[in-house]
Design brief:
The structure is a single chain. It contains eleven helices and no strands. The protein has a single domain, classed as Vanadium-containing Chloroperoxidase, domain 1 (Up-down Bundle). Helix 4 packs across helix 7, helix 4 packs antiparallel against helix 9 and helix 6 crosses helix 7. By secondary structure, the chain is an all-alpha fold. Helix content is about 75%, strand content about 0%.
């Protein structure tokens, strides 16, 4: 039945839908969430930026672990199913990482904003990303359903932990997320896990340093917000690219590179913004 559902969705195949769903699926990828979280953290709401960041990281780690444990095959190569954008098909099939990421991001936004428009935009985005993974022939329906359910669970668990840490002013509570993630590095030795583990550690260290020593205020004029955004993202992309060239090609380099990225978003850029963009 799942194969037939994919074939039914792919019955509308055309150059337009190929392009449309490839663009849609990009909104469920790493670069989109890094940029979106940075924008929110630097220019919109710092506390929500932290909460969103931890939710996305928790969700991504859980996705990698579940994929490895369940080890479900993708529909790639199944007769009658066409698969596109294969470079986004990392790991196994269940649960869908793109769908889970989209669900985590938009459910977090819905919970924060609680306005009619965000419900509409968020639900539409989740549905479209889910459909894109089926149209592109990269997941089964059960994979995207699992991604939605697990994404929602991750948001509520992560939010609860973060809110408790904030309310009690005990950042060590977040070690509930950090420690298992770092221990997992001894079990899951692939590049994707190490990049997320590095981001988690960098984000956590940055959270502690920024909260204690920087206390960055996001409020500013529109022009200065744009200045912060352009400068911050240029340095972010430069760090990501330069460190990849400079460091040897192994998982430990990926781990270190993403620690730096997590630190730049949470404490590096805010330090510079507070000092020079007032």
């Amino acid at each position: 039945m799942q194969i037939e559902i994919i074939k039914t969705i792919q019955s509308i195949i055309s150059p337009f839908w190929d392009m449309f769903f490839q663009i849609v699926t990009m909104t469920g990828e790493e670069s989109f969430y890094i940029i979106a979280a940075a924008i929110i953290f630097w220019c919109v709401n710092k506390k929500f930026g932290y909460k969103l960041g931890f939710a996305l990281l928790t969700s991504t780690i859980s996705n990698i672990v579940l994929k490895d444990m369940i080890n479900a095959a993708r529909p790639i190569g199944v007769p009658g199913i066409r698969s596109l954008r294969l470079e986004t098909a990392t790991g196994q099939s269940f649960p869908s990482g793109h769908t889970q990421g989209a669900t985590t991001f938009w459910v977090s936004c819905i919970i924060k904003v609680r306005r009619k428009w965000i419900y509409i935009v968020g639900l539409l985005a989740i549905i479209l990303v889910s459909l894109s993974r089926l149209y592109l022939g990269l997941h089964y329906p059960i994979d995207v359903i699992g991604g939605i359910v697990i994404g929602i669970i991750c948001v509520f668990i992560s939010n609860y932990i973060f809110d408790y840490a904030e309310r009690t002013q005990k950042a060590c509570v977040l070690m509930i997320i950090i420690v298992p993630t770092l221990i997992g590095m001894f079990v899951f030795r692939d590049k994707e896990y190490y990049t997320i583990a590095g981001t988690v550690l960098g984000f956590y260290i940055g959270y502690i340093l920024e909260s204690k020593y920087v206390q960055y205020d996001v409020r500013n004029s529109i022009v200065k917000q744009l200045m912060k955004l352009v400068f911050g993202l240029v340095i972010l992309m430069s760090l990501k690219g330069m460190l990849k060239v400079m460091l040897p090609l192994n998982v430990f380099s990926d781990f270190f590179r993403y620690i730096v990225i997590g630190l730049w978003i949470t404490v590096g850029a805010p330090c510079i913004f507070k000092r020079f963009v007032r």
